[in-house]
Each structure stands twice: as structure tokens, then as C-alpha cells.
Amino acid sequence: MTDPHPPQRRGFLAGLRASFLTGLVVVLPIGLTIYFVWAFIGWLDGWILPLIPASYQPDALIGHWFGPAYEFPVRGVGVLVFLFFTIVIGWMAKGLIGRTVIRQGEMIVDRMPVVRSVYGAIKQIAETFFNKKDKSFDKVVLVEFPRPGSWALGFLSTRPKGELADRLAALGPDMSAVFVGLTPFTSGMLLFVPTNELVMMDMGVDDAAKLIVSGGLVYPVPKPMEQP
To answer: What is the mean pLDDT of the chain?
Structure first.
């Protein structure tokens, strides 16, 4: 008995469209990743290379070694210089002389009204992100935002400190600082929420960031259950 409704064969254009979409899924992430990495390296080169003397510029060195007619686009020198400079500064900052120089420099900066505010804020943020002792943004939570009944993904920040901790303690329950990122993650909001009202998630920070950036299109892939 033949099927009264046989499956229709896909046309040539439909096949091309399906192949194009499949190829796009494969090519687009690779292409955009290469583009962003290449653009970031170029941006860092444009920031670092002007600080290097003209005789030591990559183009000048290549012209000196291979002749003025030889041209080769050198990119990434700024990244290497930045990494080397940062490592040297970090190594010096661990010593007594380095700590003394940094302390004297901070005392000078502290006398400048506007500069000290900018420097202090950037330093505090850097210490918060790169300090291994004080964990931050290492836990994903669900927070009721922006109104009761609506929930948003957030990241647990550091515990409230100083005057803010005292003021929040006077309000009653234990409070936690939660950063809520807004799609496409170009901005966000810092909320102080009662800890007992937060829903702790097993989701990783990277997966939550992908979900927020994609506007809810990219969900974390569930891990296979371990066999007993």
C-alpha cells in the first residue's frame, strides 16, 4: 500500500539554503573570533607602538634587515611589549624598592583632586577582579528584578563593606551585592538583595554571560550524567 502523502523532495534552492545556513553556523563563530582577536591586537599595537622610538619600530627594523623595498605587515609587537612590560613591573612591585616607589607615587596622586578619584576607582576594581583571596563574580544567581514575579540572572559580587555594610545591616536581613548584566551586556546594574531571596544556580559564569549576551538564544549545554 502506497503512502497517499509521500514526502516532498527538497528543491535545489532549498538545499542550497540549508547548506548555506549550516556553513554559516560553522564559519561565523570562527570568522568573528579571528576578527575580534585581530582587531584587539591592532588596537593594542596602535596604543603601544607610538611609545617605541622610531628606529626600533617593526617597519624600520624590517627595512634595515631586509631592505627598504621589503614590506611585511607586522602585528602583535604591541602585545609582546605590553606583556613584557607588565611582567617586569609586577616583578619589581614585589620587591622593597618597587613597593616604596609605588607608595611614593600614590602619595603624589593622592594630592590631585580629580586624578586620585579616577586612580582609586580603577585600582579598587583591578584589585577586586585579580585578587585571588577575595572571590567575586564566581556564582550565578536568580534575582527578582525589575519587579516581583520577574527574574533575572545575576552575578554575586563582593560582600558589602564599610559604611554600606553598616547601613544595610540596620535594614534587617543579611544582604548580598548582585550585578545584573543587561543584554547585550554593554551595561548593568548593581543591586543589594536579601541573601535569602536569591536562588543559587549551578550554571557557570561563562554560560550565564553567553545567555545574557545572546538575549536568551544560547543556553548552556547540559552535561551528561555520570555513570554509577
So the answer is: 78
Please write down the long-range contacts of 192-195, taking CB distance under 8 Å and 24 or more positions apart: 192/160, 192/164, 192/168, 193/143, 193/144
Closest CA to 165 of 195, 200, 187, 199: 195
Whether 119 is covered by a domain: the verdict is: no
Mean of the pLDDT values across residues 218-224?
69
Running DSSP on this structure, what letter comes out for residue 148? T
> Quick one: pLDDT band at residue 135, thresholds 50, 70, 90?
low
Structural domain count of the chain? 1
Q: What is the pLDDT of residues 45-60, one digit of tens each?
A: 888 877 877 777 777 7
Domain containing residue 167: 140-213
Whether residue 202 is contained in a domain is answered as yes
Please check whether residue 88 lies inside any domain of the structure. Answer: no
Percent above pLDDT 70 for the chain: 81
- Cβ pair 74, 59 in contact under 8 A: yes
